[in-house]
Design brief:
Structural class: mainly alpha
Radius of gyration: 33 Å
Shape: extended
Order of helices and strands: HHHHHHEEHHHHHHH
Strand order of the largest sheet: 1-2
Number of strands: 2
Distance between the termini: 9 Å
Largest sheet: 2 strands, antiparallel
C-alpha cells in the first residue's frame, strides 16, 4: 500500500512591496548605441577610403616600405633614439639628485640647467651644436685659464651624428631629471630613515631601496618621453642626417610621390612606437611585482587561457553523453 500523500499548503501571493513581485526590466541606452553606430560608420568610411582612394598609391608604398634605403634610415633613427635615451637619462639622474642635494650650489646649477634646456626648442639646440665650430674652432684639455696641453679641431671631434646625439641628449636630460626627481620624491621618506637606522650606506640606500620603488612612478612618464624622443629624432633632418624622415623627404623630392612616402614613414613610426609600448608594458609589470603580488594576466596569457577554454569546451561537446539511471522510488511496495 502507498502511504497517503500530504497536500501542500496553498502558496501565499507575494506582498506588493516584496522585491520578488517586481518585474526586472533591463536598462536601455539608446544614446550609447547611437554613438557606437556613428563611430562604426566613420571607421568604415575611413577604411573604405584607405582601400579605394588611388591617391594613397599602395603599390608605391609596397615598393619603398622595406627598401634598403628606408631600412638603413630606420636603423639610424633607432641609434639616435638609443644613444639619446641612455645618455639623457644617465645625465638626468645625476641632475635629479643634484636638485635633491642639500648643497645650494648643486641645486642652483641643476635648476638652471633644467630651466635653460627646457626653454630652448630642440631644433635650435641641434642647429647650435651643428655650428659649434663657428664658436669654438678648437677643443682642448689643459689647466683652467692656463696653458692647453692637447687640442683638436672641433669639426673632426664632433661630427654630424655626434652633434645630433649631443643636442638630443642635453635636451632629453632636462626632462629626464624632472621625471626621476618626481619618482624619487614619491618614495616614502620613512624608508630612508629605516635604512639609515640599520646603518646602510647612502649610496646603497639609493640603489637598493629608493630607485626600485621609484621606478613604478618613473616608468610610465619615462616611456612616454622615450616614445616622444623617437618621433622627435625627425627634427635632425635640418642637419642632413639620413634618418627616416630625411630619407623620405629625399625620395619624394625626386619622384614626387609625397603621400605614399609619408605613409611609409608613418607606418614605420607606428611599428616602432608599438614595440616600445610593448616593452614599456612588460618593464612596468616587472617593477610592479612588489606592490601587486597577483598582477593581471598579460595579453599573451589571456589568449592562451581563451584557447585552452575553447579546447576544453570542444572536448566536452565531443564527449558522448551517458544517460543517468532513474532511481526507483523509495518506500514503494511491490
Amino acid at each position: 500500500m502507498r502511504p497517503p500523500s500530504r497536500s501542500s499548503p496553498p502558496a501565499t501571493p507575494p506582498a506588493p512591496d516584496d522585491p520578488a513581485s517586481l518585474t526586472v526590466v533591463p536598462a536601455r541606452h539608446p544614446a550609447r548605441w547611437a554613438a557606437a553606430v556613428t563611430v562604426l560608420v566613420l571607421v568604415a568610411q575611413f577604411t573604405h577610403g584607405l582601400a579605394t582612394n588611388p591617391v594613397w598609391e599602395w603599390g608605391v608604398f609596397r615598393d619603398y616600405v622595406l627598401s634598403e634605403t628606408i631600412v638603413r634610415a630606420v636603423w639610424v633613427t633607432l641609434q639616435l633614439t638609443a644613444y639619446a635615451t641612455v645618455l639623457g637619462f644617465l645625465l638626468g639622474t645625476v641632475l635629479a639628485f643634484m636638485r635633491l642635494s642639500r648643497s645650494p650650489v648643486l641645486q642652483t646649477v641643476a635648476w638652471t640647467y633644467i630651466w635653460i634646456f627646457r626653454s630652448i626648442p630642440m631644433i635650435v639646440q641641434l642647429v647650435f651644436w651643428f655650428n659649434l665650430s663657428a664658436l669654438y674652432t678648437e677643443l682642448g684639455i689643459g689647466i683652467p685659464f692656463g696653458p692647453v696641453f692637447w687640442s683638436v679641431d672641433s669639426n673632426s671631434l664632433i661630427g654630424t651624428i655626434g652633434a645630433a646625439v649631443i643636442g638630443l641628449t642635453l635636451h632629453q636630460a632636462a626632462y629626464a631629471a624632472e621625471i626621476v626627481r618626481g619618482g624619487v620624491v614619491s618614495v616614502d621618506h620613512g624608508q630612508l630613515e629605516a635604512a639609515a637606522a640599520l646603518g646602510i650606506p647612502r649610496l646603497r640606500q639609493i640603489r637598493r631601496i629608493v630607485l626600485p620603488q621609484a621606478m613604478r612612478a618613473i616608468l610610465p612618464t619615462a616611456g612616454n618621453e622615450i616614445i616622444g624622443l623617437l618621433k622627435g629624432t625627425s627634427v635632425v633632418y635640418v642637419m642632413s642626417i639620413g634618418e627616416l624622415f630625411y630619407q623620405v623627404q629625399v625620395i619624394y623630392g625626386r619622384n614626387g610621390r609625397v603621400i605614399p612616402l609619408l605613409l611609409v614613414a608613418t607606418a614605420w613610426y607606428v611599428v616602432l612606437t608599438s614595440l616600445l609600448s610593448v616593452a614599456q608594458y612588460y618593464v612596468e609589470r616587472r617593477y610592479a611585482r612588489g606592490a601587486d603580488r597577483t598582477p593581471p594576466p598579460t595579453p599573451v596569457q589571456r589568449v592562451r587561457r581563451l584557447v585552452r577554454g575553447l579546447r576544453a569546451a570542444a572536448a566536452r561537446r565531443d564527449r558522448p553523453v551517458v544517460p543517468l539511471k532513474t532511481p526507483e522510488p523509495v518506500g514503494e511496495s511491490r
